[in-house]
Amino acid sequence: MELKNDRFLRALARQPVDRTPVWMMRQAGRYLPEYRRVRGDAGSFMDLCRDAERACEVTLQPLDRYPLDAAILFSDILTIPDAMGLGLYFETGEGPKFRKPVRTGEDVAALTLPDAERDLGYVMNAVSTIRRELNGRVPLIGFSGSPWTLATYMVEGASSKDFRHVKSMLYGNPDAMHQLLDLLAHAVTDYLNAQIRAGAQAVQIFDTWGGTLSTPAYLEFSLRYMEQIVAGLIREHDGRRVPVILFTKNGGQWLEHIASTGADAVGLDWTTELSDARTRVGHRVALQGNLDPNVLFAHPAAIRAEVARILDSYGEGTGHIFNLGHGISQFTDPDHVTAFMEALHELSPAYHAS
To answer: How far apart (Å, rounded) are the C-alpha atoms in residues 256 and 260?
Structure first.
């Protein structure tokens, strides 16, 4: 099926585009009233994820509102540990929790590798349904959490502010931690490849908690396993290259290391300046980001000014995918996203004129 808009894939390949492509992390979600309606009808968040038709509907909702250049699968980063039988559940206002956290070497040894096609078939059904309904409108992004990020939730049993359980294992029982991360790296590779076979045209690995680590720990316990995944991914499918984006929140200090993994693009949060990042990586990778999501709480003129500043920071030429520096807040006014999109569409063509 021919893509009607391949601007996102062209920018990832650092090929010329007419304007800077854009998508937003968490672009399908609670800031949209139409999402809240479907979420209410579904019964629970995971019921929504497991319903291919509803997952497709909410994936497409932001594309109907905004001129986005990519869709991203509606799912959750914790599907893999859920498939391992850890008892994922969600408490209102408290985020995800596991009934059976992984705290010891024995707990790690008892884990089994899920089969993506069998145990996570509902995700693949959603991917194929979304891809069919997109009908070539824009590319579809698949995703997974990174091994380190998945491990933090599995060991902590929930979100954490101090990461004391997972870091205790990392420093106190590194062999068990490596065993867990290696298992997760194989699971993520299988999971993303299954998404690619089902129709995902690019994939992103979310390393949400990599930035909590020291430099030696990040390289050994986070980046090493993302590099292992990149090496094991399907990189050509349906006659096209399947690009890979790595995003480590608070990871700008490791940009050169991330750019050396074999990934096609590096996602940046708002704490790394794009002009500096571009100088540091040269032409090795594309860069994705990096508007502070909280800018979208400001008035449209301020949003426009920050969009202009980020475009100017990256400068002329291709290789930039405009995005937020993290996921959009549920409290964002959808009209402010409209102001963001209008500013980008008006201002970015000048950076691609040559």
So the answer is: 6
Residue 223 contacts residue 149 (beta carbons within 8 Å): no
The residues annotated as belonging to the active site are: 26, 30, 39, 76, 153
Q: How far is CA 268 from CA 224, 258, 291, 345, in A?
A: 19, 11, 9, 21
- Low pLDDT (below 70) residues in the chain: 1
184-204 confidence digits (pLDDT tens): 999 999 999 999 999 999 999
All structural domains of the chain: 7-352 (3.20.20.210)
Is the entire prediction scored with pTM above 0.90? Answer: yes
User: Is residue 229 within 8 Å of 206, Cβ to Cβ?
Assistant: no
Tokens of 267: 């996602």
**Chain-centre distance for alpha carbon 235:** 18
- Predicted confidence at residue 2, as pLDDT, reads 86
